[in-house]
Amino acid sequence: MLTPLLLAFWLGCSLIVPTTSASAFASHRAQPASQPQTRTASTGISYGQFPDSPLGHFLYYLGQGRTREAQTAFSRLSTFEDRYRALTQAVYPGQYADGIPEVVTSCAGIVLKDQADPHRRAAIYCVLAKMNYALRDTDAALGHAQNAVQLNANSPWGWFWIAEINWFRRCWAAEAAARKRELSLFTGSTTNDFLCRAQIYHKLGLVYAQHFRQPETAIGYHYRSIDETMRLPADRIYQTYRDRRCVGAFMNILAIEVQALHDLPRAQQTLQRAIAMIPSFLSDPLDRAEILRLGLRLPEAGAPSE
């Protein structure tokens, strides 16, 4: 089961800002700017929330903008797992102070030079694709994503970034093709598979409705998104997520049936199906208002709202 932190990613939450706030490290500014030893107990330097380790030193110095010291700390990481973790942590926020992209690129280059395994190299290229996408350098991001799929075409993450980049570039056919390739790689029955397939079906539904003008195909994708979402555990972690994602998918279907197909009777039947499936369907006033705007009847209404 995914942790709540990973679930937040699929809920579409905004990327968090770096945790290296000024207040968190105010005590450090009075300390000398010397490079820490492997054990900082002897140096008297406080790293606050970061562990006393090369990884902690790397993240700390990166957050402080001390790029040379961050690179030195990165060079002390001896395993691919630690290096990959350091890079993914460095690019996670999506907001980069001056010098950080250069440090990440340099450190990633070290890993790529030292690492022969194609799958591990592909993972590093995905990190670079994510960072460059956040920087809106789509040429560089696309190049890294393409390198990733060339090295490991059976991993979905390179395809994910190709799809995202093409979405940003408004290249809808290329986006759809990459999403379908990504979708084909989630074949399991785990919670992660359900989440990923639901999200991909949702995005395909949007592109087929908004850009390909194929309403029936779009509706089919939205129903598949609902089916996958309903396979998630009905527990305290996922229940609210399940309901809101399914409500959103049904609202997309209703809009297509009314605005693209001009079929109010069919949309009314879809509304009844949604209410039966999701008891909380009409709990949001904004959803109720949108349903009335579409010209549909709410259960307690005797006639369509004007």
Would you mind describing this structure in some detail?
The chain is mainly α and 306 residues long. The protein has a domain of 121 residues: Alpha Horseshoe (Serine Threonine Protein Phosphatase 5, Tetratricopeptide repeat). It is built from 14 helices and no strands. The chain is elongated, with a radius of gyration of 24 Å.
Kindly summarize this structure in a few lines.
This protein is mainly alpha-helical and 306 residues long. The protein has 14 helices and no strands. The longest helix is centred in the last third of the chain and has 22 residues, at 239-260.
Key terms for this structure?
mainly alpha, elongated, 14 helices, Serine Threonine Protein Phosphatase 5, Tetratricopeptide repeat, disordered N terminus
Beta-strand fraction estimate: under 5%
CATH architecture of the domain at 186-306: Alpha Horseshoe
**Biggest beta sheet summary:** none
Averaged pLDDT: 84
DSSP strand count: 0
**How would you spell out the order of helices and strands?**
HHHHHHHHHHHHHH
**In terms of per-residue confidence, which ranges show pLDDT below 50 for 5 or more consecutive residues?**
1-46, 301-306
* Shape category: elongated
| Percent in helix | 55-70%
Output the CATH topology of the domain at 186-306: Serine Threonine Protein Phosphatase 5, Tetratricopeptide repeat
Query: What is the CATH class of the domain at 186-306?
Result: Mainly Alpha
Which structural class best describes the helix and strand composition?
mainly alpha
Radius of gyration: 24 Å
Q: What is the subunit arrangement here?
A: single chain
Number of helices: 14
First CA to last CA: what distance? 46 Å
